[in-house]
């Protein structure tokens, strides 16, 4: 198999961090931008870096997963690294990936850790935040379901979380307002895949509580000070929003 890697980046109005992201991946064999009809300078930045650009009609979907499936199969080379438009690939990770695909025991997929930041702090509670983003193109299918991982026909390994130099650097560092806006959008989009759940008032209390305990205590959010406490409460809020919207939907159907 050809030991070359295509970097795939899905974009929509991604001008804020895109130049830094592209600078970090410029030495890969191909950079493919799958743009969902951006109206800012995203495409101008992509052209400056000589990226291959394909378009995916945003109006057809309100989630990115169908665009990911389309994009990875538009890539030229057999190995694909999917990078968000606010994630930095470290030189160490780039070198590591080429070493792995040159070895005889390389798996069909690799889950990569990611460093997340909030209020300017590295969040221990959100590390290693594994994301399955490196795989063989011909062995991969990305289902059109929000927040789902790609399905790999073959062996998948995780990069050791102790190898922090290999982790993606997530540049988002969202504000509380940004996170709350995303929670509203993501929780609404998550309702269809949760409809089979018979969650009620108990889940509305238990799921946020469990998520808070997991984030703040089990995963060490308390070590992140005020930022860790706020992040844990925001994690709990997301679970509350999902369950509440499911209950609301069922209630509306009952009223009809």
Descriptive overview:
By secondary structure, this protein is an alpha/beta fold. It is built from seven helices and 14 strands. It has helices spanning 15-25, 42-48, 65-72, 91-101, 176-194, 201-218, 225-255; strands at residues 5-11, 30-35, 52-55, 79-82, 87-88, 109-112, 114-115, 117-118, 121-122, 131-136, 140-141, 151-152, 156-158, 168-170. A seven-stranded mixed sheet has the order 3-2-1-4-10-6-13, with helices on both faces.
Task: State the gist of this model.
The chain is α/β, with parallel strands linked by helices.
Mean pLDDT reading = 94
Tally of separate helices: 7
Percent in strands:
15-25%
Q: What profile does the largest beta sheet have?
A: 7 strands, mixed
Radius of gyration: 19 Å
Helix content: 40-55%
| Secondary-structure content class | alpha/beta
> How many angstroms separate the termini?
58 Å
- The strands making up the biggest β-sheet line up spatially as 3-2-1-4-10-6-13
Shape: globular
- How do the SSEs run, as a string of H and E? EHEHEHEEHEEEEEEEEEHHH
Number of strands: 14
Give the low-confidence spans.
Answer: none
How would you summarize the topology of this molecule?
Elements: E1 5-11, H1 15-25, E2 30-35, H2 42-48, E3 52-55, H3 65-72, E4 79-82, E5 87-88, H4 91-101, E6 109-112, E7 114-115, E8 117-118, E9 121-122, E10 131-136, E11 140-141, E12 151-152, E13 156-158, E14 168-170, H5 176-194, H6 201-218, H7 225-255
Parallel strand pairs: 1-2, 1-4, 2-3, 6-13, 7-14
Antiparallel strand pairs: 4-10, 5-14, 6-10, 8-9, 11-12
Helix pairs in contact: 5-7, 6-7
């Amino acid at each position: 198999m050809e030991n070359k890697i295509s970097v795939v980046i899905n974009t929509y109005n991604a001008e804020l961090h895109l130049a830094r992201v592209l600078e970090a991946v410029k030495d890969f064999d191909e950079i493919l931008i799958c743009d969902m009809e951006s109206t800012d300078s995203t495409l101008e930045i992509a052209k400056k870096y000589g990226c291959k650009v394909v378009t995916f009609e945003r109006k057809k979907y309100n989630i990115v997963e169908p665009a990911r499936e389309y994009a990875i199969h538009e890539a030229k080379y057999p190995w694909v690294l999917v990078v968000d438009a606010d994630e930095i690939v470290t030189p160490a990770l780039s070198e590591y990936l080429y070493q792995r695909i040159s070895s005889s025991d390389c798996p069909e997929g690799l889950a990569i850790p990611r460093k997340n930041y909030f209020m300017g702090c590295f969040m221990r509670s959100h590390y290693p935040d594994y994301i399955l983003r490196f795989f063989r193109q011909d062995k991969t299918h990305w289902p059109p379901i929000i927040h789902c991982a790609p399905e790999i026909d073959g062996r998948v390994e995780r990069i050791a979380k102790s190898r922090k130099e290999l982790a993606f650097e997530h540049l988002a560092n969202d504000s509380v307002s940004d996170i709350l806006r995303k929670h509203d959008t993501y929780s609404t989009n998550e309702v269809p895949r949760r409809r089979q759940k018979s969650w009620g008032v108990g889940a509305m209390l238990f799921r946020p509580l469990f998520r808070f305990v997991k984030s703040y205590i089990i995963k060490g959010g308390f070590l992140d000070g005020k930022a860790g406490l706020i992040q844990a409460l925001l994690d709990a809020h997301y679970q509350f929003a999902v369950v509440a919207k499911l209950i609301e939907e069922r209630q509306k159907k009952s009223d009809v």
